[in-house]
Amino acid sequence: MIHVVLCDDHAVLRRGIRDTLLDDPDIEVTAEAGGYSELREALRHAPCDVLLLDINMPGRNGLEVLASLRETHPGIRVLIVSMYPEDQYALRCLKAGAHGYANKAGDPTHLAAAVHTLAQGRKYLTPEVAQLLANSLAEPTPEMPHETLSERELQTLVKIASGKRLSDIAEELMLSPKTVSVYRARVLEKLQLTNNAELTVYAIRNQLV
Question: Which residues carry this modification: 4-aspartylphosphate (predicted)?
Fold first, then answer.
């Protein structure tokens, strides 16, 4: 039996995904969550082999949750399920540690196949994502400065650009303010910027916020 946890802030979409997965006798949905705090609580009690995670949630987004899960639950296989087209986030999610990426607009019956693929220790790639990956390998594009950032550094950049204080960022990421200050300093150095205002302008120009 494959134990699956669903994390999506839209209850109707969660119900649709759950109903689709429950048609497969080898899949059991052990818990559902509408955000990161609920997910943390669910993972304390519910067995989870595969997590279906929405990338766009209030508070912490899917990439931030993914970074935290890699530290706290490295054994869980994560399938990002998103409404965004593959060319916007798929490769970023895979680089951040996701084991697969599926579009909510796709055939829902493919989700069960994706769950089985991840449970077998393999990555799930739709034909669209596979093509993007092939293109990125065949024709590498010049790397943007922010693409050199670690996931934590990128999170810090985005949150500062969103107007959050370092103390608030530290609380959200469950880090010490000193650690967040270190991340901020690294971001400034890597992007060759000097202050938060320049960070904000950079993030807006590169559509990070």
Answer: 54
Judge whether 42 and 6 are in contact, CB under 8 Å.
no
The average pLDDT across 159-166 equals: 91
User: Judging by beta carbons within 10 Å of its beta carbon (0-12, 13-18, 19+), is residue 199 exposed, middle or buried?
Assistant: buried
All CATH 1.10.10.10 domain ranges in the chain, comma separated: 145-205
In contact, 53 and 82? CB cutoff 8 Å: no
What tens digit of pLDDT does each residue of 72-123 get?
A: 888 999 999 887 666 667 777 887 789 998 887 777 788 999 999 999 999 9
Residue found under tokens 């000097």: 194
Return the amino acid letter for 89. Answer: Y
C-alpha to C-alpha distance for 73 and 19, rounded to whole angstroms: 26
Per-residue confidence (pLDDT) for residue 171, from 0 to 100: 87
Q: According to the CATH classification, is domain 145-205 in 1.10.10.10?
A: yes
The beta-strand segments (E) located in the chain are 2-7, 27-33, 50-54, 77-82, 100-103, 124-125
- pLDDT, tens only, 10-61: 888 899 999 999 999 999 999 999 988 899 999 999 999 999 998 877 666 6
Q: Return the DSSP state at 78.
A: E
Looking at the chain, the domain(s) classified CATH 3.40.50.2300 span: 2-138
Domain 2-138 CATH superfamily: Response regulator (3.40.50.2300)
